[in-house]
Amino acid sequence: MITPAYLQKGDTIAIVSTARKNTVDNLKPTINLLKSWGLEVVIGKTIGLEQNQLAGSDEERAADFQTQLDNPSIKAIWCVRGGYGTVRMVDLLDFTKFKASPKWVIGFSDVTVLHNHLNTMGFKSIHGVMPISIPRATKEAVESLRLALFGEKLSYEISSDPMNRLGTASGELVGGNLSILYSLFGSPSAIDCTDKILFIEDLDEYLYHVDRMMMNLKRNGCLESIKGIVVGAMSSMKDNDIPWGKNALEIIQEVTKQYNIPIIYNFPAGHIHDNRTLIMGNTVSIDVTASKSTVIFN
């Protein structure tokens, strides 16, 4: 996988919207943070645009992202928020200049579209906190983003979860938001799961939907071909009047029980304040023991 150039003081990062609308009014904490890191900031034209839920039309969002892709002075593109809409504009993008001079694309949730699409082209990207979340993010989440952007050592050690499946594995980290991941299978942006470490997280889904998506990963061969799983936050899940009978983690546990692979549950990443940064496409080593779990980015 190709690693974009790590940032240096004086570099410029662009903030854009590929999905839900956002105004510039709530970005002051993020701009101050980036300046404290020695970075310059460009606010994309989609910030402030509005078309119902979206930050302007598909063409406007694609044009703003394309501008940042093609501008050699922009060293990273930070998606302001998720929601929905990235999949509507990804096929309008031309990655020719990006391939010649790759840069970091940052975000999570709906930005999983871009993580998966970039992975199919052979480029790493950054799954992490987004600009609108900076005021609520933990210091650890923010610092992990800085480490990733500036190319410093990134590794995690967390307490063991009773649901974990013990073992060790190494492979390329892929995945992201489970709902988005699920929706991309069968498209040009679908990832190849073979010999990978799969990361999944999700928000605000019905439990039977979680089961449906996990069954899809099982039936399409993804779970059979991976080396390990890192399960992030499964936040604010919903149930029907007649309960499904298992929570989200129990659903994942049931669907994956036949596979002899290490699994980390409740990893601090996803739709939570402590949304630690992950470098998608990077080789990681995971070690799951009875006392702790480690994730090391090689």
Brief characterization of the structure:
The protein is α/β, with parallel strands linked by helices and 298 residues long. It contains ten helices and 13 strands.
Question: What level of helicity do the residues show?
Answer: 25-40%
Strand/helix succession: EHEHEHHEHEHEEHEHHEHEEEE
DSSP strand count: 13
CATH class of the largest domain: Alpha Beta
**What CATH architecture of the largest domain do you see?**
3-Layer(bba) Sandwich
Radius of gyration: 18 Å
Biggest sheet architecture: 7 strands, mixed
Question: What general form does the structure show?
Answer: globular
Please tell me the overall pLDDT: 98
Report, as a whole number of angstroms, the end-to-end distance: 12 Å
Query: Which homologous superfamily in CATH is the superfamily of the largest domain?
Result: LD-carboxypeptidase A C-terminal domain-like
